[in-house]
Every structure is written in C-alpha cells, then in structure tokens.
Design a protein that fits this description.
Elements (H helix, E strand, L loop, with lengths): L4 E6 L3 H12 L4 E4 L14 E3 L13 E5 L1 E5 L4 E5 L5 E4 L1 H14 L3 E3 L3 E5 L4 E4 L4 E9 L6 H5 L6 E11 L1 H8 L8 E5 L8 E6 L4 E7 L4 H15 L2 E12 L8 E2 L2 E3 L15 H20 L7 H26 L3 H13 L2 H8 L6 H9 L3 H4 L5 H8 L3
Parallel strand pairs: 1-2, 1-11, 2-8, 5-13, 11-18
Antiparallel strand pairs: 3-7, 4-7, 5-6, 9-10, 10-11, 12-15, 12-16, 13-14, 14-15, 17-18
C-alpha cells in the first residue's frame, strides 16, 4: 500500500515516544502526532516508578527527585510500616521525563506532527487530523491516553476513576508527627485507606525541599475529591498548596480489543493499568517492547495478521496478575473503616509487616497474595463475617 509513513503513533507522551523510538531505531519511518504544544502538561501522574524501571526503559538521573525505601500504610486508627534496605521506587519529574523520551525519539529520526487526531480508518491505515488533512501509514498505534480517540474508533468501553493531586509544601516535622515516627521523611511514601474512597486510596509522596504530592483516586468527582484532600490536609498538617492537578485513571477491561486491523493500542488507551494502584507506566513500557516486535515483523512480512500476536502475548503475561489485583480490590471494597482497622490490627498481631516488606512488590502484587493464602493468613486478618465472600472472590475451598 502507498503510505506517508510505516507507522503513525498517536500521542507523544512517554508511551508513544517510547514505542516510536523503538520502531525508528529498527529502521522504520515513524511519525508521532500530538495536539499538545507542551508535552507533559498538565501533569496527570503521581510520578512514582518502581526500581524495576531500568528493566523496561531509560531513566536519566536528572529527572529523579527522590528515592524511597518503604511506605507507611494508614487506616483511620492504625499504621503499618513496610520497607526494604535499598530504594524500592523513584520519585520523578514527569514533565522532564516525558520530554526526555520525546526528544530521544526525535533524535532517532521520528517526525513530530503537532495536530489533533479526530479519527482513524483501521482497515486502510488512515489517520484523520482536525485540519482536514490525513496521514496514510501501514500501521497506526494509539497511545492517546485514558479518553482515547482511537479506542473509541474500535468501540471499546472506556471506564475510568477520577484522580486529583496537589503539590503541597509541608514541614517535615508535621509529617513525622502524622506517621508517629522519627524516620527520615523523604524515605517513605504514605498511603491512606478510607472506606469512602475505596477502591481507591489517598497518597502522600515526598519530593524535596519539604514538597509533597498529595493525591487520591476514587469513584467521587473532582469537586468531592478536592473536599476530601483539603479536609485531610487540614486535619493533619500546616501546609501551603502550590499547584493542583486533575486527571483520570482507566479501569482495566480485559474484553477490550488492543488490536484491530492495522491499529494497536498501548498504555492508558488500552487500559493497561494495575487495578489496585492505577499505575501503569512500566507495564506500558513493556507493552511497547512486545508491540514493537510484532509491528516490525508485520511490516517486514507485509502481513497485518501478525499484529494479533501482540494482544495474545500481552494477555498471557499480565492477565493473571491483573486478576489477582482485581480480587484484592474487590475484597478491600467490602470493608468499612472499622473493618480496615481490624485488618491492620490483625496484620500487626501476625507480624505481617515483615512479610509485606519481604514479598511486597509495587509491580507484581500476586506474590504477596499467594504468600498470604499459602500461610493461611488471609483468614486470620479478615473479619469472620466476610469469610464466605472472600472465599468466593479468591475461589478458595
């Protein structure tokens, strides 16, 4: 077929820039299309990446704001502390990181086109722009976020959680009082489980110079989330709000297509996010590698049917992990604040802080769940009246 490019990538965020870079480095002619003049704005991410990031992509030192070794986990009345001996996650400047990845792709030969995409023809490989122009390519890749135009074009369901975040200045002594700890404030993330925001949660992430990202996701709208965050800050800290951000986190849906004809979806556009935390950048970076292999093979063999292997491989690698996380999410959604307090109390009584510290992983949470089931701990920490429901959720007998 006649085409302007081998591949058109829609979306110049970290995922689009990464897959474009891989394909350009392989010798393909690639364009990235994005309507934004300033990539990375507005900020719509907590900006925390696990230590496994280096297995999936580059992370330059200049964009790392802080390293954390553990977390304080809170309910209304109890706190758990989990930690490792070395850094488990990096707090990053997401705007700088997005621009690093985009510039890397441009330096490798990717062409950036600043236009809004209004639709695609997945069969003919046509990308339609808002200025009435169209781009023809052999393959189209949608990396256009949670409200993906390309995902809509193939009739996918697009459910999402609202998310809100503030950049806040807080005195470190305030944070230590809040944690009931004298440990270095900058070494720990805080997460807060509350029954009125489950299945989401609230977070406090340390940056530097007494600055923190305080945010949450939940089923509530942004206005209500603002009220929750302001109330939380008022109750716990003396603080100054520097910036506010709003966004949405896609809800994973295994029934959605991520391949159709000449079109592939990656990242938020494909709802490739962890059900428990809403994070998905490392998964999306891995999906970039998987997709790239099939795109290169499909173009070299002039056979778009090869693209179907991307969806098969992605599901084979991640569907079981996502299933475990969905079960955890369903279990937590059964609990009110008193139940959550009971859960944390029982976790402490059964010395589970050490177990979580040893087996807990930001990216692969099924390891910890399996360990709890294997040791019979799941029935020691869950309120008795919920046993039957939890057994049904996890398929235990």
């Amino acid at each position: 077929m006649n085409s302007d490019f081998d591949v058109v990538v829609v979306g110049a965020g970290p995922v689009g820039s990464t897959v474009a870079y891989y394909l350009s480095e392989s010798g393909l002619d690639v364009a990235v299309v994005d309507k934004k003049k300033q990539i990375g704005y507005p900020l719509q991410c907590a900006g925390i990446l696990s230590k496994h990031i280096f297995d999936f992509n580059e992370l330059p030192k200049e964009v790392i704001l802080n390293e954390v070794t553990g977390a304080f986990l809170h309910t209304r009345n109890h706190i758990l502390n989990v930690e490792k001996d070395t850094a488990v996650a990096y707090i990053i400047d997401r705007v700088a990181y997005d621009n690093f990845l985009l510039n890397r792709s441009i330096e490798s030969g990717v062409q950036l086109i600043n236009q809004k995409v209004v639709g695609v023809d997945s069969q003919k490989g046509i990308t339609y722009l808002s200025n009435d122009e169209e781009i023809r390519s052999r393959i189209i890749i949608g990396c256009d976020g949670y409200n993906s135009t390309l995902s809509k074009c193939i009739s996918n369901s697009q459910d999402s959680f609202p998310a809100s975040q503030m950049l806040v200045e807080i005195d470190d002594e305030n944070v230590n009082l809040f944690r009931e700890s004298e440990r270095n404030c900058d070494d720990y993330v805080d997460t807060y489980l509350l029954d009125d925001i489950l299945p989401g949660f609230l977070w406090v992430i340390p940056l530097k110079n007494n600055q923190y990202r305080v945010g949450m996701f939940s089923t509530q709208n942004h206005r209500k989330q603002d009220e929750v965050l302001n109330s939380f800050l008022d109750e716990n800290f003396d603080y100054k709000i520097i910036e506010k951000y709003k966004g949405f986190i896609p809800i994973f849906n295994d029934r959605n297509k991520i391949v159709k004809d000449r079109l592939l979806l990656i990242g938020d556009a494909a709802s490739q996010v962890k059900p428990t935390s809403g994070g998905g950048l490392l998964i999306a970076f891995d999906a970039c590698k998987i997709a790239s292999r099939y795109v290169i093979e499909a173009i070299n063999n002039d056979d778009i049917n090869i693209l179907k292997g991307y969806q098969k491989d992605f599901r084979s690698k991640y569907l079981k992990e996502f299933s475990y996380q969905l079960k955890v999410q369903k279990t937590l959604s059964l609990l009110n604040d008193d139940d959550l307090d009971y859960l944390f109390l029982k976790l402490k009584e059964n010395d589970c802080e050490k177990l979580i510290s040893e087996y807990g992983d930001m990216d692969t949470q099924s390891k910890l769940v399996k360990e709890f089931i294997k040791r019979g701990l799941i029935f020691k920490i869950i309120p008795t009246f919920l046993f039957k429901k939890v057994v049904n959720i996890f398929g235990l007998r």
